[in-house]
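Figure 2 data, in text form.
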Amino acid sequence: MTRNLASEFAGRGIRVNQVTPGGTKTPIWSPEAPTDQAMSALEQRLAGITALGRMGEAEEIAKAALYLASDEETAKYFNRLPLCCSEIIERRQVTCAPSD
């Protein structure tokens, strides 16, 4: 759908992006992990199957989406390019860059 929408709207200068995050820490996991111990176990399980080795944070996903929606020149030229987002712990700043 994203590709079709992008093709349809490209002539009008409208960009279409898709953000597909992996496991992200949000309340949606509460039924699966109702206790702190269960949540910790879930985080460890999901961390083992993700590229970053941990669950994502909602703020990280939001910042990636804002970057793609920005007027930043590099954000305008992505074509099915996955982003690898990592957090710089000491500055509490999320950085996104094209992944290899």
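Caption note: Residues 86-96 have pLDDT under 50 and may be disordered.
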